[in-house]
From TrEMBL, chain A:
GO BP, sorted A to Z: iron-sulfur cluster assembly
Family in the record: Belongs to the NifU family.
Domain NIF system FeS cluster assembly NifU N-terminal, residue spans: 8-128
Protein name: SUF system NifU family Fe-S cluster assembly protein
GO molecular-function terms, A-Z: iron ion binding; iron-sulfur cluster binding
From TrEMBL, chain B:
Family statement: Belongs to the class-V pyridoxal-phosphate-dependent aminotransferase family. Csd subfamily.
Required cofactor names: pyridoxal 5'-phosphate
Catalytic activity: (sulfur carrier)-H + L-cysteine = (sulfur carrier)-SH + L-alanine
GO BP annotations, alphabetical order: cysteine metabolic process
Organism: Lujinxingia vulgaris
Protein name (database record): cysteine desulfurase
Enzyme Commission (EC) number: 2.8.1.7
Coiled-coil spans in chain: none
Regions crossing the membrane: none
Keyword Transferase applies: yes
Source taxonomy: Bacteria, Deltaproteobacteria, Bradymonadales, Lujinxingiaceae, Lujinxingia
Alphabetical keyword list: Pyridoxal phosphate, Transferase
Gene Ontology MF terms in the entry: cysteine desulfurase activity; pyridoxal phosphate binding
Span of domain Aminotransferase class V: 33-401
InterPro entries, alphabetized: Aminotrans_V_dom, Cys_dSase_SufS, PyrdxlP-dep_Trfase, PyrdxlP-dep_Trfase_major, PyrdxlP-dep_Trfase_small
Length: 158, 414
C-alpha cells in the first residue's frame, strides 16, 4: 500500500485525469499506434517534425491505465520542441530507467519523469509505462504499428 | 481411492486448509485468491497424487511391456473412466484427452470443419465467447470459405435468444457456445440452445471451461454433441483437458494431429488410424497432469457439486451485495443466472490500476479484457476488474477485496 502511494504520485494521477496534448494532431507527419495485446491498452501517437528535424508538436489519443496515460501525457510535454535525436535519447533513457539499466544518480535528462522510477519495481506494469514511449519511438522512426509483445522492434523494421 | 465418509461433514474452513497455497503472505498480507476463473488452486490431495505418480510409477503409456508402463497406463486410463463418470458420457470412446479447452476446441474446429464445412456454410457462436472459441473458427472458416454468425447479448450480459431460429440457417453447420461466460459469469441456457439447434439437426459444441468445477454437468441430459474443459479450472494441473464428443460425430471426423497413439499401423503405402478415443490422441500425453486431474475429480466429487454450487452462490451473493454498496463501483454482467464471477469497474480508475493496488494488499484478481475482447467491445468498456470465487474462498477474502477497493478509491481520490 505504501509502495502504491509512491507509485501513484499526485503528478501521475493529475496527468491521468487531465492528459496534456490529448487528441489527434492536425498536420501530423508521424503517426504510430501502440497496443499491448495482453491488456488491451491502445494509444495512437502523433508528431509533427519540421524541416529542421524538430518535433514541433505532439498529440496522443487512446485508452489505458493511469500509468500508461500519464506516461503518454508527460512524454508529450517533454518531447514537444526537441530535436528528433534528443527525443530519441530521452526515449532510451526512459526505457533504461524502467528496465533498471539506468544509473539514476548519473547523467540523464529525465527530470520529472523520474516519478515513474517506482514502476520498475512492478514488472507487470513496466509495459504500461513504456508503451506510449515505444509508440513515439516507432512514430519518429516512421513505423506505423508497434506492440509491447514480441520482438516488435525487429518486426517493425522489416 | 474411496470417498472419505467424513467428506460431507467437513466445514468449509477445513476444506480451505486443503489448499496449502492459500496459507501464504503476498506483500506482507494474507493471500486472498480471487482468480479462480483463470486457474483454480490445487488441494493437497492433488499435489500428493502428483508426487505419488512421479515417485512411484512414471513411465510412458500404452507401449511398454514392463510393469511401470503398465501401471502408468492403468493410472492414466483410470482417469478416463473418472471423466466418463464426471460428465456421464455413454462410453470411454467419447472421452478424449487434449491439452486443454483451447486445444479441444481447435480439434473440433479443424477436424469437424474439414469434414463438414464448405464454402458458404455458417458457424454460429455467441457474443460471450472467449477468444479460444472464436479464433479457431475464424481460421477454419477462412480456409474453407465459411462465415460466422453471432448470437447477441443484452446489456446485462445475457444471450438474446429471440432471433435464434433465424440465426440457425439451413447453411449453419455447428453452434459453439460457452456454458458459463469467463468474463461476466453468465450461465447460458445451453439446454434450450441445444434443443433448438437439434430441431434443425445442427450439432452444438459447449465450451465448459468455466462450468465443470462449479456445477454438475451431464452431457447426456444436456444432449451436447461436444463438451470441452480444462483440468486446471477443476483444481487439477495445467496442460491437460478433455473433449467429450458423441461417438457418431467423432467417428466421421478425420484425425487432427498425427503420431503416437493415434496410429494403428504404418507402411510407406499408408497409415491405419487407431479407433476412438486414441484416434485423436497424438504423441505422449501429459500423463502426470492427467493423473492429477483424476485426483481433482475425486476431490470435487467427494465435496459434492451441489454443496460446491451452494457455497459459491453464497459467496457471490455476499460479494455482490458488498460491492454494490460501494459508491463508484459498477458491476458489469448482471445476468439473472450467474456463476461465481464478479466483473466490475470503479468510476475514474482503469482496471489495471485496480488490479495493481489490490495485489499490493495481497488480493489477487484479474484485470483486463479476459481474452474476451468482443464482449468488452459490446459492453463499451476497455477492460474490467474481475474477482472470481471458489468454494475455498471465505468471508475474509471478501472483506479484503472490499477494503482493497476502498484503498483504490482513496489513492485515486474518487
Amino acid at each position: 500500500m505504501s509502495d502504491m502511494r509512491a507509485l501513484y504520485q499526485e503528478v501521475i494521477l493529475d496527468h491521468n485525469r487531465n492528459p496534456r496534448n490529448f487528441g489527434p494532431l492536425e498536420g501530423a507527419n508521424r503517426v504510430a499506434q501502440g497496443t499491448n495485446p495482453l491488456c488491451g491498452d491502445n494509444y495512437t501517437i502523433y508528431a509533427r517534425v519540421n524541416d529542421d528535424n524538430i518535433v514541433e508538436a505532439v498529440g496522443f489519443e487512446g485508452s489505458g491505465c493511469a500509468i500508461s496515460k500519464a506516461a503518454a501525457s508527460m512524454m508529450t510535454t517533454r518531447i514537444k520542441g526537441k530535436k528528433v535525436e534528443s527525443a530519441e535519447q530521452l526515449i532510451e533513457e526512459f526505457r533504461a530507467m524502467l528496465t533498471g539499466e539506468l544509473d539514476m544518480q548519473g547523467d540523464h535528462s529525465l527530470g520529472h519523469l523520474t516519478v515513474f522510477e517506482g514502476v520498475a519495481q512492478l514488472p507487470q506494469r513496466v509495459k504500461c509505462a513504456v508503451l506510449p514511449w515505444h509508440a513515439m519511438n516507432a512514430a519518429l522512426e516512421g513505423d506505423e504499428v508497434t506492440s509491447t509483445e514480441g520482438d516488435s522492434d525487429i518486426w517493425s523494421k522489416e | 481411492m474411496s470417498a472419505q465418509p467424513t467428506a460431507l461433514s467437513r466445514s468449509w474452513e477445513e476444506v480451505r486448509a486443503d489448499f496449502p497455497i492459500l496459507a501464504q503472505s503476498i506483500h506482507g498480507h494474507p493471500l486472498a485468491y480471487l482468480d479462480t476463473a483463470a486457474s483454480a488452486q490445487m488441494p493437497q490431495q492433488v499435489i500428493d497424487r502428483l508426487v505419488w505418480y512421479h515417485s512411484t510409477l512414471h513411465s510412458n503409456v500404452h507401449r511398454g511391456v514392463h510393469t511401470l508402463s503398465q501401471r502408468a497406463t492403468q493410472a492414466f486410463e483410470d482417469v478416463r473412466l473418472k471423466v466418463k463418470n464426471l460428465l456421464n458420457a455413454r462410453s470411454l470412446k467419447e472421452c478424449i484427452f487434449t491439452g486443454g479447452t483451447t486445444d479441444a476446441i481447435n480439434l473440433v474446429a479443424h477436424s469437424f470443419g474439414k469434414a463438414f464445412l464448405k464454402e458458404g456454410d455458417r458457424v454460429l457462436l455467441s457474443a460471450l465467447e472467449h477468444h479460444a472459441n472464436i479464433v479457431p473458427w475464424q481460421r477454419i472458416c477462412e480456409e474453407v470459405g465459411a462465415s460466422i454468425d453471432v448470437i447477441p447479448i443484452n446489456d446485462r450480459g445475457e444471450l438474446i435468444l429471440d432471433g435464434l431460429d433465424d440465426l440457425l440457417t439451413e447453411r449453419t453447420r455447428i453452434v459453439g457456445v460457452n456454458h458459463v461466460s469467463n468474463a461476466l459469469g453468465t450461465v447460458n441456457p445451453i439446454e434450450e440452445i441445444i434443443a433448438r439447434a437439434h430441431a434443425r439437426d445442427i450439432p452444438v459444441l459447449i465450451d465448459g471451461a468455466q462450468a465443470v468445477a462449479h456445477m454438475k454437468v451431464d452431457v447426456q441430459a444436456l444432449d451436447a454433441d461436444f463438451y470441452a474443459f480444462s483440468s486446471h479450472k477443476l483444481c487439477g494441473p495445467t496442460g491437460i483437458g478433455v473433449l467429450y464428443g458423441k461417438e457418431h460425430w467423432l467417428e466421421k471426423m478425420p484425425p487432427y494431429r498425427s503420431g503416437g497413439d493415434m496410429i494403428l499401423n504404418v507402411s510407406w503405402e499408408g497409415t491405419t488410424y487407431n479407433g476412438l478415443p486414441h484416434k485423436f490422441e497424438a504423441g505422449t500425453p501429459s500423463i502426470a497432469a492427467g493423473v492429477g486431474m483424476g485426483a481433482a475429480i475425486d476431490y470435487l466429487q467427494e465435496l459434492g457439486f451441489e454443496r460446491i454450487a451452494a457455497r459459491e452462490a453464497e459467496l457471490l451473493d455476499k460479494a455482490t451485495e458488498r460491492l454494490s454498496a460501494i459508491p463508484g463501483v459498477r458491476l458489469i454482467g448482471t445476468a439473472e443466472h450467474k456463476a461465481s464471477v464478479l466483473s466490475f469497474d470503479i468510476e475514474g480508475v482503469h482496471p489495471h490500476d485496480i488490479g495493481s493496488i489490490l495485489d499490493s494488499e495481497g488480493v489477487a484478481i484479474r484485470a483486463g479484457h479476459h481474452c474476451a475482447q468482443p464482449v468488452m467491445t459490446r459492453l463499451g468498456v476497455p477492460a474490467t476488474a474481475r474477482a472470481s470465487f471458489a468454494f475455498y474462498n471465505d468471508d475474509q477474502d471478501i472483506d479484503r477485496l472490499v477494503a482493497g477497493i476502498y484503498s483504490v478509491k482513496e489513492i485515486f481520490g474518487v
